[in-house]
Amino acid sequence: MARSLYIHIPFCSYICYYCDFNKFFIENQPVDAYIDALEQELTWRFAGETAPLETIYIGGGTPSAVTTAQLGRILQAVHVKTPGVSPGAEFTVEMNPDDADDDKLHTLFNHGVNRLSIGVQTFDDKLIQKIGRGHTASDAKNAVHRAKAFNFSNISIDLMLGLPEQTMSSWHDTLQTAAALDVSHISAYALKIEEKTRFYNWWRAGKLPTVTEDEAADMYEAMERVLADAGFHQYEISNFAKDGQASRHNQVYWHNESYVAAGAGAHGYLQGARYENIQPVPHYISAIENGELPERQRHQLSRREQMEEEMFLGLRMNEGMPLVRFEQKYGETVADAFPGALEELTAKGWLTVENGWVALTEEGRLLGNEVFVRFLENENKF
Ligand code: SF4
């Protein structure tokens, strides 16, 4: 059974213009009934299990958008509706800067949360408004300072690059401000225009002033330089950490290991099967009230699909993946499973194969999906 747990809290105090996550404006939402259902799902998912959890990640949505009492209930459920939290476990909760008040920080700390992931996106106040977020740059800085005052030593912040009208100078300032806050971890994602977002509608109407691919690539390279100078190691395409502070939970995903997921729209991976929970909150709650696991779909991966995922998830890590791990898991070598792929991609300068490890090169990291597609036979999978 998995020793990692993801919990999805699909409520937000504002809806950002770029976001296509499963989330709902919190006003008038049945948050307490949702937590009742979540407790029941955790009870079912962990029935008969005894091994305590090693990594927990509560994300969303915005877990910090609920009241302090509701947050306490969710955290308590992690302790009592599962086999418990292992001493030394990594326990992360996502929080928005404007929610980082003393009561919530106190509740998080008292329930054993030892890692905060703060959604900052940019320290440029004009851009923050233009992407529809409800805080300021000053809120974001204060959130980090307050979290430190509550003895959170492992703090991650999320940033976004390639935002509409984002200039290199604004991005540079954001990176410098992030580095100066002396956090332990930074995740930085390039904007993707997703359907069912305001940005998508504006983009379709020709009203979204997007940055070019070249500009976004320059921002990515600037990020690698600035964060390296500030003492961060890049350990994954979009993730940077100080020594020993890489996210253990996310590495479970990239190592293609099992994890339980609970909550509306959450995605889990157990015994070679990927499952996705029902997204709408009322349907999620009613499925559980009717005594059913709230799954929308489940797909048992074939051995071939597992091998493909092993490759494109493992290659996201800067260190790459050990070839021997693949062979031990699947009983054949990468070279046999994907004939010609390693030679072809190394000849293009996108991969290196050295000392038993295969990894993306700098150029390969910039291309990402173009490299991964070489390991996919059939992209049209759940
Ligand atoms: S980015 Fe975060 S806060 Fe904004 S709508 Fe999406 S989940 Fe909510």
Automatic annotation (TrEMBL):
Keywords: 4Fe-4S, Chaperone, Cytoplasm, Heme, Iron, Iron-sulfur, Metal-binding, S-adenosyl-L-methionine. Residues 1-233 form the Radical SAM core domain. GO terms for molecular function: 4 iron, 4 sulfur cluster binding; coproporphyrinogen oxidase activity; metal ion binding. It is found in: Cytoplasm. GO terms for biological process: porphyrin-containing compound biosynthetic process. The keyword Metal-binding applies. The keyword Protein transport does not apply. GO terms for cellular component: cytoplasm. NCBIfam families: hemN_rel. Belongs to the anaerobic coproporphyrinogen-III oxidase family. HemW subfamily. Probably acts as a heme chaperone, transferring heme to an unknown acceptor. Binds one molecule of heme per monomer, possibly covalently. Binds 1 [4Fe-4S] cluster. The cluster is coordinated with 3 cysteines and an exchangeable S-adenosyl-L-methionine. This is Heme chaperone HemW. The lineage of its organism: Bacteria, Bacillati, Bacillota, Bacilli, Bacillales.
